[in-house]
Here is the input.
Amino acid sequence: MTVRCDRTPAWQELRKHFDATAPRFDLREAFEGDAQRFEHFSQEAPQVFADLSKNLIDAKAEQLLFTLARECGLQARIEAMFGGEHINATEDRAVMHYLLRAKTAARGLATELAQVHSTLDAMLAYADAVRADHTITDVVNIGIGGSDLGPQMAVLALDEFVAPGKRFHFVSNVDGHELDGVLEGLAPEHTLFLIASKTFTTAETMANAHSAKRWYEQSGGTDIARHFAALTTNVEAARAFSIDTTFGFWDWVGGRYSMWSAIGLPLALATGSQGFRAFLEGARAMDEHFRSAPLEQNLPVRLGLLDVWYRNFHRFTSRSIAPYHSGLKRLPAYLQQLEMESNGKQVDLDGQPLPYGTSPVLWGEPGTNGQHAYFQMLHQGTDVVPLEFLAVRDAAHDLPGHHPKLLANALAQAQALMQGKRDQDGHRNFPGNRPSTFFVLERLTPESLGAFVALYEHRVFTSGALWGINSFDQWGVELGKVLARDIEPRLASGDTAGLDASTAGLLARLRQR
Ligand code: F6P
Here is the structure.
């Protein structure tokens, strides 16, 4: 049984503690007053080290947050997920993406686990065969949201492990400029299209898939079975589209949690079965950590609780992430869907409006690029935005001097945010006391990337559980889709009947020649 966070005694205690201490809390003093602060607020987890000590939190607040987690029934909620309960209540579905990387499963989930392994084996055998097939030089993934962002992010991030001789392209937008630009450089006999869609109904993906197929046939291609594969839970729809090569998954895998399923095929093609298995392995180690580490040493839990502290007590509305690795340039976009589509909710599990904030806005760019763009606001702006650094200790290149410069910048920015710099001239004054979290991976490998993504999944689970929301549905994306279907024919006909004045005016303007 879970209890909403604001209905617990710990919530009231946290409020009191916040009011009594937060206005005067100063990170610089906190470090001066506690020689163990770094040790206390840092955490080793599988493949990931995290320093949380530069956050606006003291030991008592963290203790109260652990109590809050207990009073909310977080552990029971975790076990409900790992036990296959239908915690996605509005869709009456289990939430079992962890099963995609599991070796064993709870009683009652043996059939699902066997299906996972036989599909994985088939998909990886296919991936290795395509890797060995030198006539296929280009792989085009057509999918959007969870069917695009994860594999795209991971293939870019793991470039070091990508087999030479294959290029990967990702087409998501219904904007034809994207597909057109990709098709321009392709030859049908050397191209493999992956149509990635959990539902196989998403308008953008279907439009792109139809156009790709038309292009393939018009360019002389005749072997759809060899040049198209579908990654979907809706195998019948893929067959109806005349794609026979299909890799399935299940409704208990949410779109934004699907990179570990057949949706991960681009990554398997890029890094081989070995790479993909290592990616799953990294995530599995994080699953075990999340499930078994005591709350006090549980990194996803500590992060999720910090998120609640920041959102509901400090009332920060946004958080930024700066991966100090150019290969991770799509990580912020990936995490944005993971966190904002999961926790951007305004009602609790009973459908009652929430009296507190939920998902922050998550955004970011790789460092050091962001330093020369928006870091100004992070250092001297009027709003406090907690920043997360992700640094990788060992580089995969051997260009002298670059990596120490990169790491020095990450450390220096975190230091500058915290320490600030006093200056009589207000323009040159840095207030400091600005919070950050610092993650360290030893190397960027399939395993460490898998662990880091799973860490985020469980962190989002933790804050969502405390907020008492359903982190696994996404009804908020529906209305716009329905309205777009109504508007599309009006662009051709010019019919504005029943439209509001602004939409009608814009439609008319877009039709004007
Ligand atoms: O519209 C939102 C959404 O449903 C996401 O949740 C999902 O990842 C994306 O669209 C793509 O859906 P599908 O994989 O079914 O094409």
